[in-house]
Amino acid sequence: MSTQPLDVRYYLAALKLEGKSCLVVGGGPIAAEKIDGLLAAGARVTVVAKDAIPPVRTLAADGSIELTLRPFRVDDLDGRFLAVAGTSDERLNRHIHAAAEERDMLVNVVDVPALCNFILPAVTRLGPIAIAVSTSGASPALAKRMRNEIEAAFGAEYALLAVLLNEARDWARDRLPTYQDRKAFFDSIVGGDPDPIEMLRSNGEEAVRALIDARMRRAADSQVA
Q1: Which of 53, 107, 118, 210 could form a disulfide with 100 if both were Cys (CB 3.0 to 4.6 A apart)?
Q2: Helix, strand, or coil here: 83?
Q3: Residue 64: inside a domain, yes or no?
Q4: CA nearest 88: which of 40, 131, 25?
């Protein structure tokens, strides 16, 4: 099995998959994990497999995915945004990878970084916040451990602060004309004194709303001046 060189430099990005047609080949536990991740991102998931474990069949039964129980065919890739090969058949996985590459598609062969043109980091989600950890394919187990440790370090107050800051974005776009002005405004909240995270922990949401309102007034006054 191919080993991914550790000097591969990935461009880390987040894909907007809402409504996109994505293919997963395989119906076992490996594929099931990837199916869950795609569904969480709002993708339309089609699964092609000779057989499928009960959780995958349940997703098909409730309409969450489209499941086709037969061997993979190259035309299964037609019209897909990306493909994930999650089978235990190395030869089949290589075939899927080659066919997807010919179509200039995004393709991930699970646990074989050398056969991926994108890799899937370990992700933890806190409301609108997504924290991703990647070891560039060297060790998914280590990435998951790091993700779990990060998850334990950040509580629900971070998710709430993200929501409150998002509510201020329309105001900032309307009232602060430049990117530098908007950056300074949000930096004054997130990195300023008092600390909004500590305020959420000790004084609650309304205290942070008052802090944001005060920063809005100060930013608006600076524009007039």
Answers
A1: 107
A2: strand
A3: yes
A4: 25
pLDDT in tens, 191-225: 999 999 999 999 999 999 999 999 999 999 888 76
Evaluate whether 219 touches 181 at the Cβ level (below 8 Å).
yes
User: Hey, how many other C-beta atoms are within 10 angstroms of the C-beta on 56?
Assistant: 24
**Token reading at 69:** 């129980």
Between CA 199 and CA 206 the distance in angstroms is 9
Dump the DSSP string for 58-71. Answer: HHHHTTSEEEEES-
Q: Is 189 in contact with 212 (CB distance < 8 Å)?
A: yes
Helix axes 29-40, 54-61, angle to 10 degrees: 40
- What is the token pair recorded at 24? 């997963």
Length of the chain (residues): 225
Q: How far apart are CA 26 and CA 10, in angstroms?
A: 26
Same domain as 115, residue 209 = no
**CB-based contact 153:176 (threshold 8 Å):** no
Residues 111 and 35 in one domain: yes
Average pLDDT estimate for 77-100: 97
